[in-house]
Design a protein that fits this description.
This protein folds into two domains: about 60 residues, Orthogonal Bundle (DNA polymerase, domain 1); about 300 residues, Alpha-Beta Barrel (TIM Barrel), CATH 3.20.20.70. Helices cover about 35% and strands about 20% of the residues. The protein has twelve helices and 15 strands. The strands form three sheets. The chain has an eleven-stranded mixed β-sheet with strand order 3-4-5-6-9-10-11-12-13-14-15. A two-stranded parallel sheet has the order 1-2. Helix 7 runs parallel beside helix 9. The two termini are about 35 Å apart. The N terminus and C terminus are likely disordered. The structure holds S-adenosyl-L-homocysteine. S-adenosyl-L-homocysteine binds next to strand 10 and strand 12.
Amino acid sequence: MTQSTQESINLLNFSREKLIAFFAERGEKVFRANQVIKWLHQHCVEDIAQMTNLSKALRQELADNCVIAAPEIVHEQASNDGTYKWLLRLHDGNCIETVFIPEGTRGTLCVSSQVGCALDCTFCSTARQGFSRNLTVAEIIGQLWVAKRSLQPDPKANRVISNVVMMGMGEPMLNFENVIDAMQLMLDDNAYGLSKRRVTLSTSGVVPAINRLADRLQVALALSLHAPNDALRDQLVPLNKKYPIKMVLSACQNYLDKLESVREKITIEYVLLAGVNDSDEQAHELGNLLKDFPCKINLIPFNPFPSTRYQTSSNNRSHRFQAILIDKGCVTTRRKTRGEDIDAACGQLAGKFKDRSRREIHFSRLETKV
Ligand code: SAH
């Protein structure tokens, strides 16, 4: 697969609207854009010559001006529990990670939105590497493209991507336009055709972006809360100083109010950190904060990484925390960690690659809901 050159147009960078505009400039009708989107994102072809329902002349014109350039697989790993992890290299040498987690009939792809992250959440390993840059549309949707091509060859195995969570590296709301374009392709019937309930955008709470979201895209929204009050959240998620809890929850409520379906809920993510945010008292406080808020709470075991000051809460503690929340009337699940044998939390893959390239690479979490 060729990486994009400076002069060539990368077809994977186009949203549906932009592809329609691109063809309109060349005097082509809308259905051409749909045909090309199908070739790109349903058949995942890597060669324009394979787009056999386009005229030879159009194929030639596209081939002269465009490329199909996705991130390149540096390493692929399969876990005993069916989880896959890909290390992908971008054209500038930066690397990102994408993870596939099968569970029953469901297959969830965990997708990154940025190289690194600027938000500096204290319990997150991505924060350690700082922020490098936003991913392009091609690099975001390219993660689905690469995973689908990689998983496809064995149709008998249950390896269909049915769900996507924007929970890899980065803050998707701070790469708003590219994330919207890529997520629209995830929902587009001519592209990945995923149901909007099965595509989740996870945010630390960038209020202005949450306010703009519903007009552009309707997907499941997850909020990384992690604390029941502002004093603690200010420490764990520094963005809270700018957009405190009440403000974020009210933006989330407004988002739900604008959705077509009235049954939707926000997923509240809460990483349990031993002795920091996992006491009975904090569970009560969280329950009181959320008992009338339309949400389901997902308790996440902390994935430790080298030099972190935090520890994972015990099983007993997290059960007790969950029980208090359920008692308050909050729908609460606990997330199960997956793919541990392929070193999901702070992967050896990253270490090996670092030796070769001398670049720091983050390996994100590898988890799924129970
Ligand atoms: N920036 C976005 C999306 C990326 S993080 C957000 O904050 O939501 C995706 C999820 O993984 C978030 O809920 C985040 O809090 C969680 N997470 C980060 N570091 C973790 C760790 N070490 N262990 C477990 N979960 C972690």
